[in-house]
Amino acid sequence: MVELLYAQGVLALFNKLIPISLIVLLSACGATHPPSYQKDRAPESRDQYSGVEGMAQYQKDQSHLMSKELSDKCKKAKIDLAIAKTNEDSKEIHKQNSLIKSTCV
After folding, report:
1. Which long-range contacts (CB under 8 A, 24 or more apart) does 57-65 make?
2. How far apart are CA 37 and CA 33, in angstroms?
3. Per-domain boundaries in the chain
4. CA–CA gap between residue 80 and residue 68 (Å, rounded)
């Protein structure tokens, strides 16, 4: 009889400890999640993304970087066009006009 009560007591204690242990473990895991992305850095400097929010930011950053690259190419083509016009280089003028049409939005 004593052994049965002891076994029931141990089982009851065990059943209470399991949920408590799981709650502590899961809350500890939640505390160690890395940030979604490096908010303190510019899009060009970010290299770590985590979770759904991080992936959404990654896509925004990639879009921003592609737009910036096109903008930079556009500016360079306009400068090169001005130089080509100064030098009266019709071949280079045509080339830069094509670049401007494809990169300047």
Report:
1. 61/37
2. 11
3. 1-33
4. 18
